[in-house]
Every structure is written in C-alpha cells, then in structure tokens.
Write a structure and sequence with these properties.
Chitinase A, domain 3, 265 residues, 3 domains, single chain
Length: 265
C-alpha cells in the first residue's frame, strides 16, 4: 500500500479485510472518524494531537466512548502494521479530562431561581433525566478504565472519575432548581422548536444530502435506526432550534453546515 493513500481508501481496504459480521458495526464508527478528518485526508499525514482531540470529543459526546473508540484504535494499529503510519497513533485515543466546551460545565446557573417558563422547566427536567440515565454508563466506564492495563498513568480512570463528579454535581443542582421553581405561564410557541423525541430533517449543505434523525437520550442512541444523542455535537446544535435555521458543527475538516428542513413532534 502507498503512504499517500487517503483515509477513506485505507478504511475501505481495512473493512474489506474483516469478517462480514464485523464490517457493519466497525464501519459505522470508522465512517465517523473519516468524516471528522475529511475523506481526502492523506493517512500518512494524520497528526497525534488531532487524533487525541477526536478522542476527547467522543469522550464528552457519547454514552460509551471506550466502545466507540475501539474500532478506530484497531484501524490505526492496522495502518501501522501496513507501514502507512510511522508511529502508532492508537495510543493517543485516550479518555481525557480537559477544558473542552462540550464537557459538563463546572459552573451552574444560580440556585436562586424563583420562576421558570414551562419550556424552561421542561428543558431542565429533560436534562436531569438524561444525566441520571448516564449514571449506569459512567459506572461501567469506571470499571473498564480501572481494569484496562494498556493505559498509562491511569489517565482514562482519572478522566472518568472527574466526569462522574461533574455529572453528580449537575444532577444535584438541577434537582434543587426544579424543586424550588415556580412555573410562569408565557406566550404559546408559534413555531415548533427541536426537543428530545422530535424527528428532524436536516439538509447537509456541504454534501447536498438530506438526513432524518430522531433526537433521543444518550442511552437510546442507535445510529442504524437514525437515533442520535442529544449529547452529540449535532444533537446539541439542534436542540432549541427551529425549521429554516442553519446550524454549524465544528470538525477538523472545517465547519459542517446543516439547514433544518422540518421538525416533527
């Protein structure tokens, strides 16, 4: 194989080498990896910092980041064996703590909330339910990180522990806000805003492709069924938006642009 091959070309060759039953499951995550860097990215020019950044955005946006990163790790190891990479970039696919904007924030809205609109109350209640649903997954990630002897300096374990602490702090904050809040009736919504459970039709303005997604809690995510997590980059960008609006999602290849074509409750 040539070192100037594109990421997409090498990915297709790797998938073709796998047993048929593995191609669909691994292909889904590898397609996301290719999309992140760009299909024409020369594989030999992949950089360790960007690979680490990809792992970080998976860590904060997906329910099971270790599972999501495993197919990519195997692919990078394959590329190293085939001498398409000069170093083993798989070691940079670690769960890390950091200042990524997508992480659960360390500063919360003040507790002195006297009143909320019905929409505001529902939004906080939806977030609370979603966060409580992540507890089981966080516990499993802790177990896996503690048992994984391949990671050095326990970076994944510390990252998951930090994320668990932030998760529990936010849950307590939301519970306090909702318990003391009063509902202030506001003007009825004239247009339907994207919320959890809604089906959304979006137009990828870069590739001119229309996609239909259902926004669900992280524990219900199933890309094969068109269900995307409200914690994913696209899901976060869609929440609270309306038909006709254009959203942007940041990736190493550049800004990805989508127009909301329709919203169905």
């Amino acid at each position: 194989m040539r070192q100037n091959q594109s990421l997409e070309e090498v990915t297709n060759l790797y998938l073709a080498s796998l047993p048929l039953e593995e191609r669909a499951t691994k292909g889904q995550e590898l397609n996301r990896f290719v999309r992140w860097f760009g299909r024409d990215q020369v594989i030999a020019e992949l950089a360790a910092p960007e690979v680490a950044k990809y792992a970080e955005q998976i860590t904060v946006s997906d329910v099971d980041p270790l599972k999501k990163l495993e197919p990519v790790r195997a692919f990078l190891q394959y590329a190293k064996r085939e001498k398409l990479l000069s170093t083993n970039l798989a070691v940079h696919l670690r769960l890390r703590s950091g200042s990524n904007k997508s992480e659960i924030p360390t500063k919360w809205p003040p507790r002195q909330v006297q009143s909320l609109t019905p929409e505001g109350y529902d939004k906080l209640d939806t977030e609370l339910i979603a966060l409580k649903g992540e507890r089981i997954q966080i516990a499993e990630e802790l177990r896996q990180a503690a048992a994984d002897k391949d990671f050095r300096e326990n970076a994944p374990l510390e990252a998951v522990r930090e994320q668990q602490g932030k998760l529990e702090a936010r849950i307590r904050e939301l519970e306090a806000i909702l318990k003391s809040a009063t509902i202030a009736e506001g003007e009825p919504e004239e247009t339907l805003k994207v919320m959890t459970g809604h089906q959304v039709i979006i137009h990828d303005l870069d590739s001119d492709v229309k996609l239909r997604y259902t926004l669900v809690y992280p524990s219900e995510m199933n890309l094969a069924q068109g269900k995307i997590s409200i914690a994913s980059p696209v899901g976060k960008a869609l929440l609270g938006r309306e038909q006709g609006e254009i959203i942007e999602v940041t990736a190493p290849v550049g800004l990805l642009h989508y127009r909301i074509e329709g919203v169905e409750a």
